[in-house]
Amino acid sequence: MIIDEKIKKKLMSYLSSKVFSHEDREDILQETILSFLLQKTLIHQSYEGYLFGICKNKVKEYYRLKKSQKRLIDLNLENDINEEFLLNKELFDNLTNRELIILKERFFNKKTLKEIALTHHINYATLRWQMSKIISKLRINFEKEIQNGKNELF
Fold it and tell me: Greatest CA separation found in the chain?
């Protein structure tokens, strides 16, 4: 069965509203069509509706993967932070006292996030969110310093 060009255009229009990158939209469209063609079950609805269902799931999968990749990047950055890095005071210009305390306990006192949450009576999920924000701020400051040629720690 060959997929109608009219349906491909509708799918691309749908993907344009959901995914920014043109290359990613094309990849998702190809995965959608491939999944449809490899499907072994009988389709009891219009195949256009079935294609849109597959496409919707592929978009969800795309964002789930993208989110997990961001988490991995954040975790890698968190693991790369060492004491020498933390001693560079210019990196901490835009951090609050609370954020500095969390960093100190996490990296100098080697406490886990659960231990910090219990000590400071903070919800664990909230602390994880705060930690990701702190790492984002550090990343921004670090990138600024690299652009200014001030930091060569890595």
Answer: 64
Other CB atoms within 10 A of residue 62 CB = 19
Residue corresponding to tokens 């344009």: 16
Cα-based distances in Å from 85 to 31, 52, 149: 43, 48, 15
Lookup: tokens for 87: 């001693």
Global pTM exceeds 0.70: no
Element of type H or E holding 91: none
Q: Which of the 8 DSSP states describes residue 104? A: I
Buried/exposed 11-35: b ≥16 CB within 10 Å, e otherwise: beebbeebbeeeeebeebbebbbee
3-state class of 80 per DSSP?
Answer: helix
Show pLDDT as tens, one digit a residue, over the chain (154 residues). 567 888 889 999 989 888 888 888 898 898 888 888 887 666 666 788 888 888 899 888 888 877 766 665 555 555 555 555 555 566 777 788 888 888 888 877 888 888 889 988 989 888 888 888 888 888 787 777 777 765 454 4
- Half-sphere exposure at residue 139, Cβ-oriented, CA atoms within 13 angstroms: 14
